[in-house]
Amino acid sequence: MFYRPEDGHGLPHNPFNAIVAPRPIGWISTRGSDGSENLAPYSFFNAVAYVPPQVMFSSTSTKPDRGDTKDSVANIRDTGVFCVNIVEYAMRDAMNQTSGPWPMDIDEFTDAAIERAACETIPCSRVAAAPAALECKLTQIVDLPGEANKVVFGEVTGVYIRDDCLKDGIFDVLSFNPLARMGYKDYTVVREKFAIARPGES
């Protein structure tokens, strides 16, 4: 089949998310200017540059108590910092609990019984048990076409790696099994890997 998004797809559910998959999940922790904290997963997330290291995530909807966006973006807009927590398979249920449309006064760390730890380079909390966390300072927020589409870019100022995830100097994803988002309500988990050398590499 072929369809133009502007004309609709005619299927029971939108296939777009399932086509662009699997997608890494950025579990974004933020702190508001009033000291309140928020934790929410975003599957429109990725690393975008090596030097300096930079990441992005995008938010595509709004909440009635946040006007033009959601808690994560609103907090980042106010404070200029955020932390990306990597989601392991073992924390899938806790991650899912933090995805709810909770009021802005709900602290997802507390609501989902997630232990927090203080970041080193920014005034924000991270998920204490996460395999890794990227502490970030905001570089820019870009408004995309659409009612509430915003992309947040950040420069990584600190990197936390859980000790058991380092094997012989390598960050070993098989030691914790990253969770990834598919389409619809589906997820997947990384349980195997293989290496491919680029042309000219030994």
UniProtKB/TrEMBL annotation:
<dbReference type="InterPro" id="IPR012349">
    <property type="entry name" value="Split_barrel_FMN-bd"/>
</dbReference>
<dbReference type="GO" id="GO:0016646">
    <property type="term" value="F:oxidoreductase activity, acting on the CH-NH group of donors, NAD or NADP as acceptor"/>
</dbReference>
<protein>
    <submittedName>
        <fullName>Flavin reductase</fullName>
    </submittedName>
</protein>
<dbReference type="Pfam" id="PF01613">
    <property type="entry name" value="Flavin_Reduct"/>
</dbReference>
<dbReference type="InterPro" id="IPR002563">
    <property type="entry name" value="Flavin_Rdtase-like_dom"/>
</dbReference>
<feature type="domain" description="Flavin reductase like">
    <location>
        <begin position="18"/>
        <end position="173"/>
    </location>
</feature>
<dbReference type="GO" id="GO:0010181">
    <property type="term" value="F:FMN binding"/>
</dbReference>
